Amino acid sequence: MDEVRVDKWLWAARFFKTRSLATEAVLAGHVQVNGARVKPSKDVRADDEVDVRIGTVQWSVVVRGVSDKRGPASVARTLYEETPASAAARQEQALARRLSRPLGADLGERPTKQARRRLDALRKAERRRRS
Q1: 2-46 tens-digit pLDDT
Q2: Which DSSP string corresponds to the chain?
Q3: Which of 94, 113, 10 is closest to 52 using CA atoms?
């Protein structure tokens, strides 16, 4: 087998728990193959570069093997090789998430009505900023 659909490969490489989740991510534009947005039926081959965004985490991997069957995690890990820049960025982002305080942590133990409104305003502003 020289090539396989990108949604099957993402599922077999264990980036997504189900194939339908992988298909939805590809359709939503969260997956790029060789820098281009693709459809779920796009074939991937060895040495293709795949960029996957899962939530806020960005993976940039090089395809090392293809499989259309989901196997153990140890086998799935051999299907790709993460780029050093991607691994460093993921570790840095994980460290930043660990060190950051949750939104509204400085408001006290149990918020008053006024504090709750401030927290809601903060969350609303944060959602607008991310969109």
Answers
A1: 899 999 999 999 999 999 999 999 999 999 999 999 999 999 999
A2: --EEEHHHHHHHTTSSSSHHHHHHHHHTT-EEETTEE--TT-EEETT-EEEEEETTEEEEEEE----SS---HHHHGGGEEE-HHHHHHHHHHHHHHHHSPPTTGGG-SS--HHHHHHHHHHHHHHHHHH-
A3: 10
Phi, psi angles (nearest 5°) of residue 51: -110, 125
Task: Read off the pLDDT band of 64 (50, 70, 90).
Answer: very high
Within 10 A of 6 (CB to CB), how many other CB atoms are there? 26
Looking at this protein, which amino acid is placed at residue 36?
Answer: A
Could you tell me which residues come within 8 angstroms of residue 118 by beta carbon, excluding any fewer than 6 positions away? Answer: 107
Q: Which CATH class is domain 3-99?
A: alpha beta
| Annotated domain spans of the chain | 3-99, 102-131
Instruction: Answer positive or negative: Cα dihedral of 77, 78, 80, 84.
Output: positive
